[in-house]
Amino acid sequence: MPSVTIHTTQNVRIDYETAGVGLRIGAFAIDLIGVLITYFLLLFFLQLVEAEIDLAVLVQYGLVFYILLYFFFTEMLSRGQTIGKRILKLRVIRLDGEDPTPADFLARSIFLLLDVLFTAGVLAVLLIVTGRQNQRLGDVIARTVVIHTRHFGGVSLRDILTIRNREEHVARFASVQRMNDNDMLLVKQTLARYRHYGNPAHRAALRELAAKMSDLLEVAQTDRPASDEQFLEALLLDYIVLTR
Q1: pTM, to two decimals
Q2: What secondary structure does DSSP assign to the chain, as a single string?
Q3: Rounded Cα gap, residues 244 and 234, in angstroms
Q4: What residue intervals traverse the membrane (predicted)?
Q5: Which of 54, 71, 111, 174 is a plausible cystine mate for 138, CB 3.0–4.6 Å?
């Protein structure tokens, strides 16, 4: 599957699977159905209350602006997800790892006119299919990309970078620098599942992982914290302090 590599402001490299044309069409179709339903309900209400508005003009021109406003506000207020994108587990992110700004979402919405509305979606499909990062023109202008939100079982490097007490932590296990980001994501995921479920199966997984890490890093049992959980968290903190 096509992917994109994001380098965050913490100099962390994260690979994401980009959304293909089928999923993006599906998300847009879901959004468009919702937009059409709500828009014509609004027109019906205005007609019902006999509002002094030219409904013919609204039907002819208002729908375009309504679509643009929908995509702009839903993506901006939901951190890159419209209703359709949320259902299909897609999200808009920036290529530099920062959160997209309102200006980015505005650019994406405006270029829907050319990408989709004025070309019946042909331009968007061609660009997504032929582009290396599956970007439509609005993505290229805003420097954004649409990705699958699933990544490493729902655990991202941002989870690691927000572990508590990072500033006060003094590294104890220098050998953890042999590990890579994916290794430490596995450690974080195992810890998160153990803390969430706490059942014997996850406790056994935690114990096995701690033993494996001890062997790989050549850490003696006497040099480890009292519990497997504390040991793995110490390794995570050491990894962050020593490699970031």
Answers
A1: 0.63
A2: --EEEEE-TTS-EEEEEBP-HHHHHHHHHHHHHHHHHHHHHHHHHHHHTT-SS-HHHIIIIIHHHHHHHHHHHHHHHTTS--HHHHHTTEEEEETTSSPPPHHHHHHHHHTHIIIIITTTTHHHHHHHHHSTT---HHHHHHTEEEEES--GGG--HHHHHT-TTTTT-----GGGGGS-HHHHHHHHHHHHHHHHH--HHHHHHHHHHHHHHHHHHT--GGGS-SSHHHHHHHHHHHHHHHH-
A3: 15
A4: 25-46, 53-73, 105-129
A5: 111
How many angstroms separate the CA atoms of 93 and 123, rounded? Answer: 21
Question: In the prediction, which pLDDT does 55 show?
Answer: 67
The CA-CA-CA angle for residues 203, 205, 208, to 5°, reads 110
Q: How many CB atoms lie within 10 A of CB 92?
A: 25
Beta bridge partners of 3: 17
Tokens read off for 56: 């013919």
How far apart, in whole angstroms, are the C-alpha atoms of residue 69 and residue 161?
35
